[in-house]
Amino acid sequence: GTDITLWGLELGLLSMARGEVARFWFSPEYAYGRRGCPPHIPPDTTVLFHVELLDFIDSEECDMFFELRGAQQDTLPLEKVLKVAATEREFGNYFFHKQNFRVAKHRYKRALSILDRSCSSEAEQSQVHPAKVPLLLNLSLTYLKLECPKRALQYGEKALEMDQGNVKALFRCGQACLCLKEYSKSRDFLTRAQKIQPFNRDINNELKKLA
């Protein structure tokens, strides 16, 4: 609710399900009030909203998590921490698809920082690492979009430390090295990726650039 200025619209959205279409009549006190919204909406106007709720991300648990102090966050069950990190990644994906790469980067990094808590057992570590790898790959791609290949390479290599045979990580590292004009390293990463997925068009196209 922090990004919605109309009380009526906020109440209406809370009543809707994903994919639902609805119409809402809002009296002035639930819409633009006595001031209206010049020059389009006069004062004290009842307004009609036609709304289609395509999708939403529930940020309630994230908001509650970040209101806690660090020591309090560390006491939460791992299941809840993983859920908060996954929600932050969803926000990152949303902004990435909107091509707002800087905000996406911030969201991915925040999700990664949540997962940097110390694991109390190997069982916890086995759950945290698979959640970290997609975030590292997201950050690698985002830095490529931001034309920061050195950072893209760093995050790609971190992903490979956790999953040596990850094709996406090998591909991102190959792309980053190509941007850095480190052609030998680029060929090495891409060739390793090609051995795992020999018919991957993107990998083969990048290798053609090195021919």
Automatic annotation (TrEMBL):
Domain of life of the organism encoding this protein: Eukaryota
GO molecular function: Hsp90 protein binding; peptidyl-prolyl cis-trans isomerase activity
Matches recorded under InterPro entries: FKBP6/shu, PPIase_dom_sf, PPIase_FKBP_dom, TPR-like_helical_dom_sf, TPR_rpt
E.C. number(s) listed in UniProt: 5.2.1.8
Gene Ontology CC annotation, any one: cytoplasm
Species this chain originates from: Mionectes macconnelli (McConnell's flycatcher)
Protein name: peptidylprolyl isomerase
Enzyme class: isomerase
Keywords, comma-separated and alphabetical: Isomerase, Repeat, Rotamase, TPR repeat
Reactions catalysed according to its record: [protein]-peptidylproline (omega=180) = [protein]-peptidylproline (omega=0)
PPIase FKBP-type domain: residues covered: 1-57
GO biological-process terms attached to the record: piRNA processing; spermatogenesis
PANTHER family: INACTIVE PEPTIDYL-PROLYL CIS-TRANS ISOMERASE FKBP6 (PTHR46674)
Cited Pfam families: FKBP_C
Family: Belongs to the FKBP6 family.
